[in-house]
Design a protein that fits this description.
Its EC number is 3.5.4.25. Pathway: Cofactor biosynthesis; riboflavin biosynthesis; 5-amino-6-(D-ribitylamino)uracil from GTP: step 1/4. This protein is an alpha/beta fold. 36% of the residues lie in helices and 26% in strands. Helix 7 links the parallel strand 6 and strand 7.
Length: 199
């Protein structure tokens, strides 16, 4: 970014956030594309080797507790781990619903999965990308918080590559192991076999 370029994100608010997983700070950001994101912070994340997670918005998993995915379980696990570590950050990325295809298209993908397609083919059958997410905003948020490198809690190597591409070093990819539910078994197998996730 040059001195005259517009920053990708603007910090808007910073408040205390007591949760079932611990007491955090929540920092809100507005990106140049209009999406609003938050960082859920424990301790001082500035510096190297901070425990972190990039969490893609998932209404069905995070809010409704859907068993078609493991998103809600991964978010809870990350918050617990960061709380226990006493230092870390979850960047909650809005606009990433359904690997970036949006909520309505994700529900259509669910319909196609109910008819027998896997998660990859359900996207492409709609003429949509398999994964439309970008991680430039996530990197900008981490930089704003002073993070130089992360121990990234993720099973998705593409998230690590996205951070590195945008200037945040990844010291380690920390696997996220959560309970397997029968309803998500085929979905997770496809993520491993076709999307390169480490499961």
């Amino acid at each position: 970014m040059t001195a005259t370029s517009t920053p990708l994100v603007e910090r808007v608010g910073d408040a205390r956030l007591p949760t079932a997983h611990g007491d955090f700070r929540i920092v809100s950001y507005r990106a140049v594309d209009g999406h609003e994101h938050v960082a859920i912070v424990e301790g001082d994340p500035a510096g190297r080797g901070v425990l972190g997670r990039l969490h893609s918005e998932c209404l069905t998993g995070d809010v409704l507790g859907s068993r078609k995915c493991d998103c809600g379980d991964q978010l809870a696990h990350a918050l617990d781990e960061i709380s226990n570590a006493g230092r870390g950050v979850v960047v909650y990325l809005r606009g990433h619903e359904g690997r970036g295809i949006g909520l309505a298209n994700k529900i259509k993908a669910y319909e196609l999965q109910d008819a027998g397609l896997d998660t990859v083919d359900a996207n492409t059958a709609q003429g949509l990308p398999v994964d439309a997410r970008q991680y430039d905003v996530a990197a900008a948020i981490l930089v704003d918080l002073g993070v130089e490198s992360v121990r990234l809690m993720s099973n998705n190597p593409a998230k690590a590559a996205g951070l590195v591409e945008h200037g945040v070093a990844v010291d380690e990819l920390v696997p996220v192991i959560v309970p397997l539910h029968p309803e998500s078994e085929a979905y997770l197998r496809t993520k491993g076999e076709r999307l390169g996730h480490v499961l």
